[in-house]
Amino acid sequence: MASDIEERREKIISIINEELNEVYRLSSHLNHRNPDHLLRMAELNLEKARLYRDKENKEYLELPTSKRRKLNKRSFFRESNKYFDQANTLCMKIVRNYPSYKSIGEVYYIIAYNAKEANKNKTAEKYFKRAISKSRPNSDVQLKSKISLAEIYYNTKRYSSAIPLYSQALSRHKDRWWTKDSFNLAWCYYRNNQHDRAIRKMQEVYTVSSDDKYVDMRDAVTRDIGQIYATSGKISEGINFYEKLGINFTDQLIDIANVLNREGRKADADKVLNYAEAYVKDTGKKAEIYLEQLVHDAQYNRYRDHLKNTRKLMAYFKAKKLSDKQVAALTFQVQKMGAVIQKKVVSNIYKNSKTRRIYKSYANEYFDFMQSLDPAKKSLYAFYQGETSFAAKDYSEAMKYYNEAFDRARKENNSAVMKNSMEGLLAGLGQRSLSSKEKESYYIPVYENYLSMDSKSDRAEMLYTKLFKAYYDKGDYDNAEKTLYRYHRDFPKNHKTKEAMIANLMEISKKKGDHVKIRDWVARIDAGDFVVSPQYKLKLQQLLTNIQIEEVQTKLEKGDKKEALIGYHKIVKDQYSTKKSKINAKYNLAALYYELGNVDKSYEWSLNAIEEMDAKDVEDFSDSFLSISSYLFGMQYFEKSASLSEKILEKLCNTRSKKKRIAFRNSLYLYVAENKLKEAQNVLKLGRSCKIRNSVVVDATFEIIEKFWEHNLYQVYEQSLENLSFSKKYWPKLLGPYSKLIALHEKHQNMNRVSELKSKRQQLFDWSIRNKKDIPVSSLNIMAMEEMKKLDPIVSNLESTKLSFPEDTFNQLMQRKLKLLEKLTDQAVRVQSLGAPEGIVQSFKVLINAYSNFVQEMKTFKPTGKSKEFMDSFNQAMAGVYVPLEQKVKNFQVEAKAAIVKNDILSNSNADVIYDMKDSNRFYSKYSGVVMHRGGKR
Amino acid sequence: MFLRIVVLNLFITQLFAISNIEDAYSKRSKSVNWYRSFINQMIAEKKYYTAVYWFKDYIGKGRPFSKELDTSLARVILAIGASQFEYLPSRYLENSNSATVQYIYAKKLMKRNRYKEALDQVNRIGPRHMLMPFIYHMKGVLYSAQKQYDRARINFEDCVRSSDVSKPREKLNKEYCIAGLARNTYGSRNLEKSESQYLDVPKSSRVWPQILYEEAWNSYYRGKYNRTLGKLVTYKAPVLDHMFGPKIEVLNAISYLKMCLYNDAQQISDQFWNRYQGDYRRLRSLLLSKRNDHYYFYKLIVDFEKSGTTSRSYLENLLKNITLDSRYQAIRDSFILGADELQVIKGFRSSKLARMLEKRLEDTLKDQQQIIGAFVRRVLHEHYQDLNEAFESMSYIKLEVLSQRKKQLYSFEDKREKRGDVKYLERNAKQYFWDFNGEFWADELGDYVFALKSECR
Lengths: 938, 457
Fold this sequence. Notes:
The complex is a heterodimer of chains A (about 950) and B (about 450). Chain A has about 950 residues and is mainly alpha-helical. Chain A is built from 46 helices and no strands. Helices cover about 80% and strands about 0% of the residues of chain A. In chain A, α6 (about 105-115) runs antiparallel to α7 and α39 crosses α41 (about 775-790). The mean pLDDT of chain A is about 85. Chain B has about 450 residues and is mainly α.
């Protein structure tokens, strides 16, 4: 056969040589002017090159690998290369010399083909494209170019680009290679997911291949069509196809899947196996498929699929439908996958708890399967499940599995698993996320199980306490007590632990009110059955007292106040009562007496309680104490009320409680009311040291200094003023007290001091005016009156200056009087500028009087001995002066009225300055005002 | 030898003719009428060649033709052909009122492939014109060339009907028209009918050897390759050995090719190349060296005819072929006629008119020599072109053969060869079947049919 091919090749080459000669003869006959001939020669060279290349390829492949490796390929393929080069040269000549040549497409085809042969695929692609575009539609060369270009696309996996080229070309061009090219097209369809087309094309290739005019592709079709049938789900059609050929298709499916898998086309491999699964009915074969799927799933880490298939196989296993070999394979897969997934759960990769939880469930299911597949190691797999759940932080489940593992291991007598599961259980109990309820359900059995294994170790000692607590928390005090005894037995010297246990048990007794039991415990301790610390011993005594308080409290709650009072008194007197209990009892006594209306007792126990209480407690109960204090005030026990408030203030002194201000005020004002000025002074002092707000303290100070004045305590009064004057803020308010003091000193002719004090007062006043401070009206009036005093000499001067003639004297006097008036007016204005109501009204009054008197004087002045003409002239001249002054008087009145109205001035002199009000009625009470007692006594 | 005899026979009768012409000439004036009557007198005295100069002059001056003068010109055409006038510039011809001049102009246009204009010209000619059989022929050819096959057929039929077989020129015209009918039908692709019509051309006709080739093509196109080969083999008959041609060889080869008888086809191809390559070069060299030296080619054919050689070189065969061409014979006969007239005119040299006529006639005859030389050159050139194309065709045939062989090798086909079996033939009423045995019988010429089985699959 080989020699036959060789012979045929030689014959063909010989014909090609003849053709070449003939074309050359023709071309030279026409002086090589026809590009057709050049093209034909190129074609023939190309054909020849291909034949030589076939031959060389064959020879090359027949060489041993070692020899092939050393071979110079260029030299080996020189013959074919020579003709490829010749073809290329001819074509390039045509392209160069005959660019518009009608068959330029064919030329490009040859260039492209040569490039393809030389593995220059990009160049080949370029020229094939040119060949297609430049050649006649559907011409042979265009079709061949399309096929070649399609082949390039096919080889470079650009299947969708190859399809139109192949399909266009192959529908028209049917040469020997049609089958092979169509086979490629079928693959392109397949790769492009056009499975039906792929199958149809494959079938067509198969049919056409039977014709010996075409390359026989039947083997290739038989080999590959199965894959297409399989991956497109046309298994039954595939079976029909193969049945016709006498081939069992189903046997091939697994192989196809394996091939696909090896190609990395896992999805297709799966498809095939899935189709196979759907189609195959035989259990054994199905199991084979599932096992194969397991392998693929494992390979591609498809855990869920692996699990699904494992479930199916486990069903077969349980139905005893698997062979030993299949069981072994399944066991291997299950074991391996269980381990793999467990590893994933344990690793830190999955921060997402959901994913980890899923994997945990997978792994545990695999360990479940392993319990069926390998029942001898059930405890071990249960332990693995526990470990997996633990790693997934599903402690609840882990505990269940550990517990199960422990129980099974005990039955299996597997101490290692027992030990490990116990460790797991203990670790699980230590997890916060395990609910208390669940923990409680495990504490006792786990600890008991552990202690059954080991009761003397350090860990056992610790677990005894935990066990005790578990029983204790559960309310199983009997077992808790028994645990205490067991502990006492195994660890007789650990007194502290035992003391704690006893304390807990006594607490229960206390709650139960089982004093007998408590006294019994105390007795046993006293007897030396259990050694406890002295402090604890004392504590036990206190416990007994507490029991008593609680009893009293219960009675009180029931409304039995009498019994309560007795009980509290007992506690106060009991030598074993704690300080706290006593304080408690004292407060409660104060409260009880208050409720009972016993003022003295309530006051007494309140003081007692406050005395012993710390500031915090007093603060807590301050409302109650202040209520009692108010109650005392209400009951007119002013001094006691003040005293209690003072006590409260003392205790709250260093706290930030707001109540201390109330206590301060209550105490101070009540002392002041009661004229207990010393005590009041003490409270004032206390208030300052307790950092009561300054304004509150100052208000209290002003309150108290009035009392000093009243009680003629002038020295203290003066001192207090001095103290207050340190702060400028109080200066306006101090003007009044200073004025009083000045008056006192004036009274006693102590003029130096008056002068000092006046100077001081003026300083205060000036500053207050300057800084626009609110000055009390009384103070303003005082200060205005002081200023008014400056008017008096001017008024006197005016009044003493009388008009007289001769003329010059008259004129001088007039001038002098007018100047005095001006001076008076200026001073009055100054008084008014102080804004004191009395000062305003009085100053207007003085001005009006002064002006009016002057006018009157001028009107009535009659110089004597003067002629009528003189007099007329004189009168006329006088009128020129007094008329404006009269007008001035009127203006003063209007201004005075306006000031009174505007400033709501109530002054006794108002009527004097407003002429219009002369006729108005004025009302006066026949009584003086009533002074209220501060304490409300009178 | 041939010319000499003719001159002696005619001498006495011509004596009177010249004197009549001289009489007419003596009445010469500048009037057109005198010119017409003078020319008419020459025609009346059958001095056709002598009149050519005067007709050319008259046409060149653009003077109107009288009916009588037109008839005279027609007679000249019938006697010596139209070639002398075809070389006149178109501007002289195109506006003439003469139907004969229109005919001449139409011929000129037809040779230049301006068929529609040619038809316009001839369609102006009335049906009673003396040249009507030839005009019908021309119209048939023109309509056929324009693929108006029905009109062409009518004209060819009119030509056949109107041609008087007693007149050699019209007899030949008729034979051409019979062939024209077949060609027209062939042109309309009614191959079956045309095959039958080709058979209407009598074997005795000078047209027939050319028709044989056309018949061969007709059979070829009908897929009757055996018949084609049979027709072509007729050319190997001694009587037709001058009728060789590259085209015949090519048709022969492609017929074998069509029957997939590749060896035969290739053999013809190879033989053709071997046989004609040298001749081709020589012919090429001749044509290139002599180019438009028409007198040379005139001399060449005259010398060939004089020599009567039988040992045939390729060129001599070609020349022989030309001498047997009816077109050549027509212009050659025309020239002899002119030579005879010259002899007569020379006999009266003493006359001033005679000397003038002699001078004019000599010029006309020189033109005729040029016409003959040009014709020879054209035929040789055509042959050269045919040869050139035939080489190409032969190469392609060979390449096709090689390609087919190669195809067989590629497609693993077995070769099958079985030749000559009568069952592959189809016959009709006008054909005979002869087993080809290399002998030629005159009556059987053109009826040979091969019986080769096609080897195509």
